[in-house]
Design brief:
Serine Threonine Protein Phosphatase 5, Tetratricopeptide repeat; mainly alpha
Length: 268
């Protein structure tokens, strides 16, 4: 690598490879130095910025990691990874307003990308903004990836925010069966059951959500629900409701909201 770098000093890709070699041999500091030199050159690929931000993060240099991602969004606005990583950084620190502003800006370049559509929809919902737009974005993302559990979860959460609880419960319960350890899905499903008056089911799923690694994002909301349940003295066994076997596997009817009736848009 030393020989190659001496021959081609202006190649960011070579500095990236040198960084990988240094890191693999245990010299993380030297690897970081190589990456820092790489991003100072011209025509730097986005993945090199991502590699530098990642090594900064692992070394707990969070400010430098964020600045590197910001630099990438400015120099390579059509590289999606930096926008998503930057938004996720602020989501992880529960700065949802900042994350939304970043993704709104990045979305201009990626309006047909289902990942951007779903992530933006989720952030709009978390910021209690434009729920109708969030639902439209979530539906569009789901149409492009019906097998993607994150897209389905976001769509279910959008139905929840629109007050279409039976549709939300139908979709989220299907997703929960495939990803029972996902805290967000458990939280979303529990909140939906709570709004439907299914208190026993709500408590079950919200307690699972409380024990997940993601609980920091919604433990206040769960505490508030449990306090409300306790206040109303609704905790107790849930009465079994007879199920019509003929309609057990059909999609539920959709409640009327303040808007016109919402019809699911995904492909069957």
């Amino acid at each position: 690598m030393k020989k190659k770098l001496a021959e081609r000093k202006n190649s960011p890709e070579l500095y990236y490879l040198a960084a990988k070699v240094a890191i693999q041999t245990g010299d993380r500091s030297r690897g970081e130095s190589f990456l820092e030199k790489a991003v100072q050159l011209e025509h730097v690929p986005g993945f090199i910025y991502m590699a530098l931000a990642d090594i900064y993060k692992k070394n707990h240099n969070i400010k430098e990691a964020v600045e590197t991602l910001e630099q990438c969004t400015l120099k390579i606005p059509y590289f999606p990874g930096a926008w998503l990583a930057l938004a996720n950084h602020y989501i992880d620190h529960q700065a949802f307003t900042t994350a939304l502003a970043i993704l709104q800006k990045g979305y201009k370049q990626f309006q047909d990308d289902p990942v951007f559509q779903s992530n933006l929809a989720w952030l709009l919902l978390e910021n209690n903004q434009e729920t109708s737009r969030a639902l439209s974005l979530a539906q569009s993302a789901y149409e492009k990836g019906t097998d993607n559990l994150a897209f389905a979860d976001t769509l279910g959460w959008a139905y929840y925010h629109k007050g279409v609880y039976s549709q939300a419960a139908w979709l989220l319960s299907a997703v929960e069966k495939k990803a029972p350890n996902n805290g967000f899905i458990q939280y979303h499903l529990g909140m939906t059951y709570y709004q439907q008056g299914e208190i026993g089911k709500a408590i079950e799923h919200l307690k699972i959500a409380q024990t997940s690694e993601m609980s920091k994002h919604f433990f206040h909301e769960i505490d508030a629900v449990f306090a409300e349940i306790s206040k109303k003295k609704q905790v107790g066994p849930v009465t079994e409701i007879p199920v019509d076997q003929a309609t057990l596997f059909s999609s539920p009817e959709i409640e009327t909201t303040e808007d016109d009736m919402i019809v699911p848009q995904w492909k069957k």
